Amino acid sequence: MTEKIMENVWKEIKSAGNVDEEDKEIYLFGIYQGLIFLLNVVTALLTGIILDMFLESVLFLICFIPLRIFAGGYHAKTQFRCYVMSTVTTVILLYLIAFLQKNMGVDVIAVYIVAACIIWKFAPVQDKNKPLDLDEQKKYRKRVHSLLILISCVSGGLYLWGNDVVPAVVVSVVCQLAIVLVWGKYKNYTLDCTSAV
């Protein structure tokens, strides 16, 4: 069914503009990935509405998406598995954010520092489907470091100012990303060991 829909999309693209048949896969892949991304964003926002945490879900996406794009980490084998994991993770993180808004203490800040150090050290973690050359690795690492500094400073300042929402979101995002990076590193390590045998 998906193939039939994508074939119709390709017919529309061809009729709308001057595109080469040899570029078909590139166009369709980009559109498909864009739709999957949009589905994940809409699901996260709907989850936020259902849990009466719309603002938190928006802030979560604003902080998480740029970091995830440049930091990399674990990727599920199928789009469906990725969607299910993303949805479940979003629900768990929104509950964590609600908890942290009332329980932000020194222990949470310590966990945040450890998670931030993991990201600082490991990012970017490449996937076998998205290998990075040395220049890309340096560029992505720099962007991750810049984003990490930015969100840390903003959330730290807001925490001192008495805002609980943004720091809770940032702690959740950074902890989740640290887990994703460690998981991605482990997956890459096990793949390397398997292929070496």
Helix/strand layout:
Elements lengths: L1 H15 L7 H27 L3 H18 L7 H24 L3 H17 L11 H27 L4 H32 L1
Helix pairs in contact: 2-3, 2-4, 3-6, 3-7, 4-7, 5-7, 6-7
Task: Describe it.
- With 197 residues, the protein is mostly helical.
- It contains seven helices and no strands.
- It has helices spanning 2-16, 24-50, 54-71, 79-102, 106-122, 134-160, 165-196.
- α3 runs parallel beside α7 (165-196) and α6 (134-160) runs antiparallel to α7.
- The longest helix is centred in the last third of the chain and has 32 residues, at 165-196.
- It starts with a helix and ends with a helix.
- The mean pLDDT is 87.
Tell me the helix content.
over 70%
The DSSP helix count reads 7
> What is the total tally of β strands?
0
Mean pLDDT: 87
Uncertain stretches of 5 or more adjacent residues: none
Estimate the strand proportion.
under 5%
Q: Separation of termini? A: 40 Å
Largest sheet: none
Radius of gyration, in Å, reads: 19 Å
Write the element-wise H/E pattern from the N-terminal end onward: HHHHHHH
Secondary structural class: mainly alpha
Shape: globular
Q: What's a quick, concise take on this entry?
A:
The chain has 197 residues and is mainly alpha-helical. It is built from seven helices and no strands. Helix 2 packs antiparallel against helix 3 and helix 4 runs antiparallel to helix 7.
Which labels suit this protein?
single chain, 197 residues, mainly alpha
